Every structure is written in structure tokens, then in C-alpha cells.
Amino acid sequence: MHIQISAQHFALGEALKDYIDAKLSTHIVKYTNCATGCDVHFSRINHQFQCEIVLHSGVKLTLVSQALSDDAYDCFDVSLAKLDKQLMKQSSKSKDHHQGLNRNKLSDANLQNLV
After folding, report:
1. What DSSP string runs through 48-71?
2. Side-chain-side CA neighbours of residue 58 (13 Å)
3. What are 26-54's pLDDT values in tens digits?
């Protein structure tokens, strides 16, 4: 997965870039394997940082999360938490929910045979 990190109106340090790369790679792989790329853009608005994360997926899915905070690390963490919620919701939508019905029927049948 390709991660592109950019900043506007200030310079990003290597520590922040490494932090972003490590966090994104672990969080995105947890929910999806089909992510093709991710863009992280920081901008400085007055005294606050704004972080926008755009996740591109191979299945025509694009997720966007934004956050605003006084600290760049905190801003990224809040935006990543929002992206995690979106990924959880999307992964639960794509699961096959018919498997749960078959398990319930089998467990009910086994209980009736035991009684």
C-alpha cells in the first residue's frame, strides 16, 4: 500500500512521518486487504493543525476523515480514529450474514436432539 504524506504551511519532521506510516499500516491492514493507497495531508490554520486522511480502495471505495487540533500527533490520532470507525462499518457491511443463521439452526437442532 502506498502512503503519501504532505504538509502545507509547515515542514513535517521524520518522526511524525514514521509515526504516521506505522499507525496507518497496522490499522488499515486490520480491516481491509484491498487498500491501494492512502493520502495524508496536514495544513496549518492559524494556530491549529488540520489533518485529512483519504483512503483509496480497489473496490471503488474512498473513505475520508478530517480532524482539527492544536497538536499534529493528536490531530492525526483523532482523524485515524474516525477512519477506523468508517472501516469497521464498511467491513461489517461486506460480511456474509447468512452464516450466522445456519449456526443458529444447527445449535437449535442439536439442543432438541439432546432433550
Report:
1. EEEEEEEEEETTS-EEEEEEEESS
2. 7
3. 887 777 767 788 999 999 999 999 999 99
Residues 6+ apart with CB under 8 A from 7: 41, 42, 43, 44
List, for the chain, all residue ranges whose pLDDT scores fall below the cut of 70: 33, 95-115
Give just the sign of the alpha carbon dihedral 54, 60, 61, 64. positive
Check residue 60 and give left, alpha or beta (phi > 0: left; psi -120 to 50: alpha). left
Phi, psi for residue 66 in degrees, rounded to 5: -135, 150
Taking the domain 2-114, which CATH number applies? 3.30.160.100
d(Cα 65, Cα 96) in Å, to the nearest integer?
Answer: 26
In the chain, domain spans: 2-114
DSSP one-letter code for 32: -
Q: State the Cα–Cα distance between residues 110 and 115, nearest whole angstrom.
A: 9
